[in-house]
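Hi W.,

Here's what went into the run:
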Amino acid sequence: MELNLQQKAAAEYSGENHILVLAGAGTGKTRTIIGRVAYLLETGVKPWRILLMTFTRRAAGEMIERLSGLVGDASRSISAGTFHHFSLYTMRRMPNDFNIGKATVIDRDDQVQLVRLIRDGYKRKKGVVPRAAEVVNLYSYARNTVQPLDAYLDKHSDYDDETIKMICDMAREYERRKQLNLYLDYDDILFRFADVLQENREVRERLKGGYDHILVDEMQDTNPLQWRILELLKDPPRLFCVGDDAQSIYAFRGADFRNVHSFTERVAQSEVLRLEENYRSVQGVLDFSNQLLENSSIRYGKKLRAYRKDPGKPRFMIFYSDMAEARYIASDLVQRHKNGARWSDHMILTRTGYAARTLESFMVEKKIPYRFIGGASLLQAAHVKDLICLLRSAMNHRDELAWTRYLKMFPKIGDVTAGKMIAAMKDCETTAAALETLSKANPSRKELIGNVNSVAGALESPAEAIKIASDVLTPLLKNRYDNWKRRSNDFKLLKRMAEGHESMAGFIEAYTLEPISTSMAERDGDEDAVTLITVHSAKGTEAKVCYLIRVEPGMYPHSRSIGSIDDEEEERRILYVAMTRAMDDLILTRTMGKWDVDDSSFFFNELDETMVDVHSTPHLY
DNA sequence: GAAGCGTTATACTAT
DNA sequence: ATAACGCTTC
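Here's what came out:
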């Protein structure tokens, strides 16, 4: 593999220090990490003694894929995945040391649902009770930044003392309910792992002894909780971290862009290397991106140098409505495809999943194949959740959230009745005993119990269990949703997805940890398709032609961050990440939007026409 | 008291 | 599209 001098110096570093590679956008971070792994293998490091931490499982898969072309089968022995995957699977592999038993991993929706049940008990008291989703966010943020919830709220929120106490009470009750239900939320996965590592010297030493090198991608977006895990695992393992402060866009999860600056202070025996030459983009794209950063009050001290010499000025197109914007992008895609370009050379970047909906409908209408990455996932759709909850109910009679949702599908059962039925089962040891208890107390509810029984009998074959669950739920659901035909197709999709899995729990866990959109599930991986992607998910990716949609007031910076300097600067980095994905063509589009949006912080109130070609289109709807 | 229905609000980013 | 809320019905 060809590496430039700086990349080579990083990849083939042979000293004993921990390394941070500061690498700007498009400077070959991934290439350098892959080069590093290849180098380590060449020098005799065993592949299973290399741990590769990536930001998403998708990124891990791509790196392993590229490595296999370089080093063959050895790539399959490398441990690669996110902090969450690594932590969870290590705990599952060492069940006696971590004691997570049969715990169910719950996603954010489940967290919110559980807090909602708890919150109902707080409604009577005077004053406003924060929303369940807000409580989940606050608590998760405090945990990811490793600070007590009350201290965090005291310092960083506007809540009065009484409300703070209430939020802390709800969080405590949330913890209790999780234990009762054998739930692990995303944060528990990291916390439990870190706690055991810290408390149990023997386990810690055993794990540390398993690795020589820990490589961390997207270091700028690791939060204090993840840092804590790295600190517990390093020495003797050597750290090789790669990141870019200007691309730090996960502050809401506890990451701080300044962290990479203090790397050498935080990590003894460490040094910083740099990658500065950009191979991805044409000069025009880089000039425009550099200008965006220069307008910031923060000095990132970087200016990307293009290796490529072609000018390639970006375009900025103004449309009257989102319909006109979407229509243009769809027809431009079709035109480029007709001219011989592949669909997969095109990426459409969106700030929010919601903002891409108009465009999505045009993609469907024009029959342009696309994959949506980020945004709402298949498992979050109401009808899919219904089905998953029946499966979960059959697997674990103490799964309060699953049972509540399942029971409420039946007439005359609401939160209260469901709660009573679940309480009746809580002391039963087995599912069979629980169903027996339920059936004695509710003789008229044969159907309800029979459904769970049939699914429970088929759990050894996930696809079969899904088929049964789908059949028994159809009569209950088909009148509840208007577009039932389209929704029921998702059940078939789910069945197909489950076919490769050996256990139901494994299947559900895999897709809880790695959410998948409908558009991804419908297509197989190598099909030529346009990528529609949120900017957050696009970190680390690139495409020849990039469309950035809805680059307008209220979006960049997002209206929610207006007023906070830190938040607005994070939004600038988000836009920076988006723009630097483009290799050849960068097309920014905006609509005229609503008239009442505060546009004073918009990043492009004035457009420098030496940097970008501006096109205004006729006011067509 | 609990369930169910219709109306209205809200929709940022994600492991 | 879905959650939350207020109001009516059982």
